[in-house]
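User: I'm putting together a teaching handout on how multi-component assemblies are represented. Below are the sequence lines for each component of a complex, exactly as they appear in our records. Could you produce the 3D structure of the whole assembly as structure tokens, so the students can see both representations side by side? Please keep the chain order the same as the input.
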Amino acid sequence: MKGHVLRAFVKKEFLHIFRDYRTLMVLFGMPIAQVILFGYAITTELRDVKIGVWDMSKDQKSIELISNITSSEFFALNDNVSASHEIEASFKKGRVKAFLVFPNDFGNKLERGTASIQIIADASDPNTANIITNQLTSIIQRWDMLEKSKTLRRAFIDTEVRMHYNPESKSVLLFVPGVITIILMLVSAMLTSISIAREKEMGNMEILLVSPLKPAVVIIGKILPYLMLSLVNALIIMGIGNVVFEVPVNGSFVLLLLECLLFIVVALSLGVFISTKVESQQMALMMSLFALMLPTILLSGFIFPISSMPLPLQWISHAMPPKYFIIIIKAIMLKGVGIAHIWKETLILSLMAVFFIGLSVKNYKSRLE
Amino acid sequence: MNKAITANKLTKKFGNFIATNAITFDVDKGEVFGFLGANGAGKTTAIKMLTGLSRPTSGEATVAGLDIYRHAEQIKQQIGYMSQKFSLYEDMTVSENIEFYGGIYGLKRSEIRERGGKSLDQLSMTNVRNHKVNSLPLGWKQKLAFAVATLHKPGIVFLDEPTGGVDPITRRQFWEMIYQAAEEGITVFVTTHYMDEAEYCNRISIMVEGLMVACDSPAALKSLHNASSIEEVFIKIARNKE
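Assistant: Of course. Below is the structure of the complete assembly, with chains in the same order as your input.
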């Protein structure tokens, strides 16, 4: 009889979800829009950044260095000027992001060891300017080393930087795990808390409480549909990430799904917990937005690195379930590690799930006082 | 045991406010028992205590011979409830609502189909069974809600202001449904503030400010207070209180 009752309840929940186009939009429209937005719009990779040069010496060495820089995939030469006021004009027209200025007699100065190059960057976007100047500096230094080792016939220590697990510094590799986290949190916590609050608001909850339905059946019946849909969602995001942005899943796919399941349970229990505290759908929405969504985005390490936060915020971030999930999901997707490397985070999430489920069951009143 | 409901000094306090003050009454099996009173007189509070939605501050009560404190879960199997707030799911069709409520009372699919079909026939709503509930007029919804509340054939059905805001003709039809349920042996406990509806009940009790001030058959109350209608009885009693 139990399974029969639960089936009736779950069927009703699915009817609610599929008949409300707003819920459907949040469920399926948003994940797709978010992945595409984050994948295309927010990018920190350098590719064919336009630069300009003012070469006052035009000797063999300067021309060699310029061609070295522009032959990399990072930079493309877009402007060649011969006076300082043209630099300003070029920036203003938006033709270039940075300028290289070579002094007179560059080749001779280089041999005497007094050569210098000026880099002028457009810092109206400071983040990009930083990345560009770093990249330019490192290319120039490596070229310099190479030159010196030729003339002195002595080997220099050459450092080669390799960005492991994300060799091309692709930002989308970091955003896909982040978006999965946000979407799972949003769908699971917000939609469940709203749907339970709706039963209260409309008066249906009274009927359910008078009926022989066990509270556990009500809670499971509410959770189960969103659990399934959230998993589908995680698969959709990973699919888009994989097909459109070539985000790999290097680790075990089964482990990844199990970890997603664990995080969804945490988020769902948070949603049920919220719904036991509020009386209306509006309150449920506000609570899940401010108490869950903002911390998920701001404090989970998704956008801002936790290590650069002030200490009190770092402490708060330790209490955020998404923080641990982002660590886990990045480790599985990008590093391809197994459970041995992420058991600590998994354990913390499991404890959180037990804690919130316990709290919700305690809070769920089978009597309306 | 042929009492459907007994209540002994049942009391509910919210802080200093006494919603129901030591009300004592009983309801016979198969009876249509009316609970009358102005808004805020304590009718809904009484119904919530009897259905297990609210825990009494003090006093005793039994429903279907079961103690409301110790056997709350068994009582749930025996009763049907129609709340003051409209309680069907608006975004689901008539059939889907019947299936859902039948399902949570553990009815088999065949039972739901058979009883649901019969109810829809009686309500002449068979042709709208695939319409969403929110497209139906209020009176139809209320009649449907009553049919749904009695689908699992409860011994007792609690109706909290079932006819609020409904037109006179539909109210009349609604009371015919109540009578039919009573004929099938279902005890009906109904609250209302329409005094004319009180005349349809076997017995009525009148509540004023949390106190039960009268409890008898409509005819007995009318002759006791020398009045021609229940409305007159109610006004006389209310005046006496002041």
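A couple of points students might notice: The radius of gyration of chain A is 28 Å. The first strand of chain A starts at residue 49 and ends at 55.
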